[in-house]
Amino acid sequence: MSAKLLGRRELLAGIRGPFAEKLIGALPAPTLVVDLDGRVAAANSPARDLLPALKIDDPLLRALRSPDVHDAIRRVLASGETETALWSERVPIERLYEVCVAPLASEKNVVVATLLTLSDLTEARRLERMRADFIANASHELRTPLASLLGFVETLQGSAQGDERARMRFLQIMRDQGRRMARLIDDLLSLSRIEQKQHVRPNTAVDLVQVVRHVADTLAPMAKDFGAEIRLDVEDAVIVNGDRDELVRVAENLIENAIKYGGRGEGGDRVEVKVARKGKDGFLSVADFGCGIAPEHLPRLTERFYRVDLGQSRAKNGTGLGLALVKHILTRHRGRLTIVSKLGQGSTFTATAPLRESR
């Protein structure tokens, strides 16, 4: 038997030995060893969890069907140089992994196996995509009113310079567009502030009933303009751990949305607001009796800039960030937002936050 073949066998025996198994098993990332024949020589628990079909001594191809990874393994066996490859799966859920393929060589520098380490890039890629979408959406939302403002300024400086009627109409539109940009910037800054302190749980006693009464009084003129009535059903006091300003923002967004988008446009619309206790939580529910929301829209309502009806939202000065703000605020409060809606029957938005324990 040649010394070269003997060296390979000794190394492979070591790879399959108890020490190597313990060493690979101690690694936190999915890790496995593949021999010259493409068979799995060793694998740790994360690798077995990730690849349920993975079995020792079976071909890796049975558990991981990725031409790019297997091509990388062949190149590493031939060259002895480390390579990386991407492996993506779409079922049962979309996943993306970076696979690092490193050579395992004998004392005489003969490659006899490869070490595969899999790094999950799914969340990083999702965040990267979300960041790019966010920048694109924010730029678009600001560009539209800005272009409108510039156009009206040029018109007022030119053909409409001496037209008093046109000037007053254009100035009104410019003021509305300026306010829209201000609201958008305010919402963006609020989102940024909330995200920065997302891990810090607020611990101040806040009465949800007082918050809702204050918001209802503030929004009463808007409700009157939209032909809606705000009806309150509240207990004496519902004390939660929270940040009062942020909870006011939650109530404002939910009630304002119900006023703006929850009506049938026939007058006599109502918005029912309830504050009560349920188990260890205090909850605020806002119900409208309008046209409702189609089921396919419900999972995406809290996404930034997502709108069911883009034209209606912009016509009513919506920024597309209200429910995203609500979701982030409630996450910081260790609460949640649930949405129930039926077409033709209306929608109910319920926000919860943990009750403050009596001391």
What does this molecule look like?
A hairpin with a 5-residue loop joins strand 3 and strand 4. The chain has helices at residues 3-15, 18-25, 45-50, 67-79, 122-157, 164-196, 208-225, 244-261, 310-315, 322-332; strands spanning 31-35, 40-43, 83-89, 95-105, 111-120, 204-207, 228-234, 239-242, 269-278, 281-288, 336-342, 346-354. The strands form three sheets. A five-stranded antiparallel β-sheet has the order 2-1-5-4-3. A five-stranded mixed β-sheet has the order 7-9-10-12-11, covered by helices on one side. It folds into three domains: 3-120, PAS domain (Beta-Lactamase, 2-Layer Sandwich), CATH 3.30.450; 123-196, Helix Hairpins (Orthogonal Bundle), CATH 1.10.287.130; 200-359, Heat Shock Protein 90 (2-Layer Sandwich), CATH 3.30.565. With 359 residues, it is an alpha+beta fold. The protein contains ten helices and twelve strands. Helix content is 45%, strand content 24%. The model is unreliable at 1-7 (pLDDT under 50).
How are the SSEs ordered, and which strands pair?
Blueprint: H1 3-15, H2 18-25, E1 31-35, E2 40-43, H3 45-50, H4 67-79, E3 83-89, E4 95-105, E5 111-120, H5 122-157, H6 164-196, E6 204-207, H7 208-225, E7 228-234, E8 239-242, H8 244-261, E9 269-278, E10 281-288, H9 310-315, H10 322-332, E11 336-342, E12 346-354
Parallel strand pairs: 7-9
Antiparallel strand pairs: 1-2, 1-5, 3-4, 4-5, 6-8, 9-10, 10-12, 11-12
Helix pairs in contact: 5-6, 6-10, 7-8, 8-10
